[in-house]
Amino acid sequence: MVMYYTDETIVYLNGDWIKAADAKTSVYSQSLHYGMSVFEGIRSYEIDGKAHLFRGKEHMERMIFSAKAIGLPFKMQADAMMNIAHELLERNKITAAYIRPLVFASPMMSLSFPEEAQFMMCCWAWSKLLGDKLTKLAISPYRKNHPQSIKTEAKVGGHYVNSILAATEAKSRGYDDALQLDVDGHIAECSGANFFIEKDGVLFTPSRGHILPGLTRDSVLQLCKRNKIEVKQQKIAPHEVFAADSAFLVGTAAEISGVQSLDDQSFKKPWASSIGFNLQKEYEAATRSTHEWERVVYL
Q1: pLDDT digits (tens, 9 = 90+) for 121-142
Q2: Is 19 a catalytic residue?
Q3: HSE of 274 in the Cβ direction (CA atoms, 13 Å)?
Q4: 134, 175, 98, 137: which is closest to 280 by C-alpha?
Q5: H/E element holding 34?
Q6: Which residue of the set 144, 151, 155, 199 is catalytic?
Q7: Burial (CB count within 10 angstroms: exposed 0-12, middle 13-18, buried 19+), residue 102
Q8: Domains in the chain, CATH or no CATH each
Q9: CA spacing 20 to 30 A to 220: which of 23, 56, 84, 277?
């Protein structure tokens, strides 16, 4: 069993700094029963001996947006959350880390908006989600939720039941992750990451609507713009993925990860010769420097 904390780990909970082992919340929380919560995953990279949060303020702003989208009455501002994140790292004596802020509901058993919101932030050392090896994907029988049934662009805890089902089903068949389709049968995203393919020197990625448009996805689009790499955001059919030259997935936890195969069919181009590989190296350099990113506005 993976342990994300020790007896000395400190977390932030509703205004207090406490040991993770001592953290308590109500078993009547609406989040525990119905998945009414929002969260973020933020990477902190060590630069010149100090912690640097990768697009941290934008992550915090997206969480505020997500909370508002599902009716969580969360009042904290992004700058205050950034201060908490830096203090969290200092208290735990860690610079390179994965940071998890979470907004969750107060005790509430009815299906209505909660009257209060709780706030927690923790961190731990976490290497790339899928490691450095190439990823073996399988098309999942679990499709992404319809955008008219959920708040697709909000990062909501309950949405990830769908992702867990897809990922565990793929792993039970010997794959590393699942590639999910939308309700119309087009490519959407992996269980916890956005998806790109390369064909004839052009990148393609699913357009917004059925996906969570991640900040890592946006970072890749910005790197492509800077390097004059053509990217088309559009609907992608499964047969177009099988015909692609290469593929990769992107996300905070996964960073940029090359794809070896889809349903056991390998891609034509060696990963080291692909556009994705070059972007992977540039992304790693950019996240570990003071690279300036164009801001995404959520608020």
Answers
A1: 999 998 776 667 999 999 999 9
A2: no
A3: 26
A4: 134
A5: helix 30-34
A6: 155
A7: middle
A8: 10-124 (3.30.470.10), 135-287 (3.20.10.10)
A9: 84
